[in-house]
Specification:
Helix content: 40-55%
Strand content: 15-25%
Structural class: alpha/beta
Distance between the termini: 66 Å
CATH architecture of the largest domain: Alpha-Beta Barrel
Bound molecules: ligand C2E, calcium ion
CATH superfamily of the largest domain: EAL domain
CATH topology of the largest domain: TIM Barrel
Number of strands: 23
Number of helices: 19
Largest sheet: 10 strands, mixed
CATH class of the largest domain: Alpha Beta
Length: 666
């Protein structure tokens, strides 16, 4: 599954939870603040507008006082008749006249009252200290309010049934024209009904808020539940109904990144049901998938807490296991594989397992370092790389990843990606290694050996890419390429009058499954027009273990077309002495292994001598490969070896250097 998809899902997942939580928090705070502000402002607005009209009356009393123009008796009579508690004081604060009970607080404050331009100088009432001028605005003693509310609902109603309102006084000041001050008591009436209305209102708003909250909570739970359901579907594998790869990466990384798991060894496995496709062909796809489910279930029952398995793709499973030591881990894996092999009593299956060991990293104090930057996809790829090394193997097997594998795998991929363009651009060069007659020192033949001159990767010997081509099948293209180039070179040299000798071309084992190989070779050489006797074909010894009948047929046909056929690397693998009696070969190439190491190893000399004799008896010529020293040349000459191909005479040479040699031979 793609990395972007995984990342997107993670992001969505995270955002969903975060957004719901944030919304809840935000709404909660918003509603609470709104309620408090609303109650405060609404109440203050109601009280302030009540006081305003009363304040007008006090101002009017000031006008009455001023209108009396110093006739204080007249003024006081008129003011007393208003029926309001008030007092008049001079600039020093001395009370000049008062009416009613003076419960005015000593300290006042300028207060901004709504819809009134001027600020009103206001004092609290010491008897009913509810409305207070404070910091330029009106505040309320809410605790007192609650007491009154109780009072009004219970006690008051029983004792004074006729009283259905409250009087909340506050004192305001009106300036007088003679410099004195008139301070009058103003009343804000709070009806019982108002209180009830207000309480009911607050309860309603509170209840609505609660309902909204509950609804939101339900929504949140439902969305979390739905998300869980959705997640389950999202993480379900289509084939096995178990967990899928995305779940493995997300869950696996969560586990691996945990601080407490830093001191636990983990291994990531790539488990493959070998020949799954064959099983599907022989049975059916649905039976194949049924098998995959059984594989997953079997592994699952053998896993411990904190371990997991998921279907990756095709017949691959990703597994995460914990271990204390490697032996114990491998024992467990082997037991699981043994169990899987006999999952069905009618079959014996094979499984390949690639293991990537995560191990524990420690800091300089010996503490385990959390795997903060672990990338499970990369680790699984490592396990896959290890598993890929088993591909040749039909039986159950397991391999463990090491870092050299990464480089190797990278190179394999590079070669595969570049092989076709390298062929098209003629980056593959033909080198010629001459073969000499040890008796006469005459040039008798050569072997064509490939080199890769890559503009990007430099000059590469066949060891770096031929085994890769043999595995990926590109080797057949290479064999044709080499054959064509050798045929072209030989034709050109012949036309230039050089003394051409037969050149052998390596034909890989993979080629022999083609029925018409002999005809393909004949036609390719004929298309160029090179005489067949100038081309020799080398077959590696190991090819003789495949279908021998087909091989014999191909060799006979090649010979009938006039090509020479040789057996390469004789003596390198299991002895193919037996094959010699049935296969009509022209040349036996003694493997270089015979001439490596101690030069006078008597036992080896006996074998070489006997091999040469045997070849002679069977009418075969012999070529000794890898000969580097004079003693060996002399020995081989004594034994009647026909040709020597080795560094003693020449290394593989570029085309132009080889051309110089055949020109000189002339
Ligand atoms: P091979 O067919 O057995 O080729 C002989 C190898 O032995 C060559 O290595 C050659 O350079 C080396 N050799 C010859 N004399 C000496 C010596 O005195 N001392 C030492 N140390 N080595 C010597 P090279 O060219 O690296 O080729 C290696 C293998 O790659 C070949 O083994 C052959 O199996 C494969 N190969 C090379 N070219 C081709 C090709 O065109 N097609 C195919 N199918 N395989 C090729
Ligand atoms: Ca060869
Ligand atoms: Ca060889």
């Amino acid at each position: 599954m793609s990395n972007t998809k995984t990342k997107g899902f993670r992001k969505y997942n995270k955002n969903n939870v975060v957004s719901v939580t944030m919304t809840m928090l935000f709404l909660g705070i918003f509603i609470a603040v709104f309620l408090v502000l609303f109650v405060m402002f609404f109440f203050r607005y109601v009280v302030a507008s009540g006081i305003i009209s009363e304040y007008g009356s006090v101002l009017y009393m000031g006008q009455v006082y001023d209108a009396a123009e110093g006739d204080l008796d007249k003024a006081y009579n008129a003011l007393d008749a208003e029926g309001r508690s008030y007092f008049i004081r001079d600039e020093d604060g001395k009370i000049l006249h008062e009416k009613g009970k003076n419960t005015c607080a000593s300290e006042g404050e300028y207060v901004t009252v709504y819809s009134y331009d001027d600020q009103v100088y206001m004092y609290a009432d010491t008897d009913v200290d509810f409305i207070r001028p404070e910091k330029g605005s009106i505040t309320f003693d809410y605790k007192g309010f609650v007491t009154w509310a109780r009072f009004s609902n219970k006690i008051n109603r029983i004792e004074h049934k006729e009283q259905d309102s409250f009087d909340l006084p506050v004192w305001v000041k009106a300036g007088l024209s003679d410099g004195n001050e008139l301070i009058g008591q103003v009343h804000f009436h709070l009806e019982n009904n108002d209180i009830i209305f207000f309480v009911v209102f607050c309860v309603c708003v509170g209840a609505l808020t609660c309902i909204a909250f509950v609804l939101l909570l339900i929504h949140m739970f439902r969305s979390v539940y739905r998300k869980h359901k959705l997640t389950d579907i999202f993480y379900m594998d289509d084939v096995t109904d178990g967990r899928n790869w995305m779940w493995f990466t997300i869950k696996g990384e969560q586990i691996l990144k945990k601080k407490k798991n830093a001191s636990i060894n983990y291994a990531i496995l790539d488990l493959v049901f070998v020949k799954y496709r064959n099983y599907c062909v022989v049975h059916s796809v649905s039976e194949g998938e049924q098998m995959l489910r059984r594989v997953e279930n079997f592994v699952n029952t053998n896993l411990y807490v904190g371990e997991m398995i998921a279907h990756y793709a095709s017949a691959n499973f990703a597994v995460m296991m914990r271990y204390t030591n490697e032996t114990e881990l491998y024992d467990r894996i082997d037991r699981i594989m043994a169990g899987l092999e006999h999952l069905d009593k009618n079959h014996k299956f094979s499984f390949h397992v690639g293991v990537d060991l995560l191990g524990i990293t420690k800091d300089q104090h010996g503490r385990a370092v959390p795997r903060r930057y672990i990338n499970i996809e990369r680790e699984y790829n490592n396990a896959c790389a290890a598993r890929a090394t088993l591909e040749e193997n039909d039986d159950s097997a397991r391999a463990t990843f090491d870092s050299a594998m990464v480089e190797e795998q990278k190179w394999i991929d590079t070669v595969r990606e570049n092989q076709q363009s390298a062929l098209d651009n003629e980056e593959f060069l033909v080198y010629y290694q001459p073969k000499y007659d040890p008796q006469t020192n005459e040039l008798k033949g050569a072997e064509a050996l490939i080199r890769w001159q890559s503009p990007v990767y430099g000059f590469k010997g066949p060891g770096a890419f031929i085994p890769i081509f043999e595995k990926n099948g590109f080797i057949t293209e290479i064999d044709h390429y080499m054959l064509r180039h050798v045929a072209m070179d030989q034709k050109r040299w012949l036309e230039q009058g050089y003394s051409c000798v037969p050149v052998s071309v390596n034909i890989s084992r993979a080629h022999f499954i083609e029925d018409d190989l002999a005809e393909q070779i004949r036609d390719a050489v004929d298309a160029i027009g090179t005489p067949h006797e100038l081309i020799e074909l080398e077959l590696t010894e190991s090819a003789f273990f495949d279908d021998k009948n087909a091989l014999v047929t191909t060799i006979k046909r090649l010979k009938s077309y006039g090509f020479t056929v040789s057996m390469d690397d004789f003596g390198s693998g299991y002895s193919s002495l037996n094959s010699l009696k049935d296969i009509p070969l022209d040349v036996l190439k003694l493997d270089a292994e015979f001439f490596r190491g101690d030069a006078d190893d008597k036992r080896r000399e006996i074998i070489v001598a006997e091999a040469i004799k045997l070849a002679k008896c069977l009418n075969m010529r012999t070529v000794a490969e890898g000969v580097e020293v004079k003693e060996q040349v002399d020995f081989l000459a004594d034994q009647g070896c026909d040709m020597i191909q080795g560094y003693y005479f020449a290394k593989p040479l570029p085309g132009n250097e080889y051309e110089d040699r055949i020109r000189q031979e002339k």
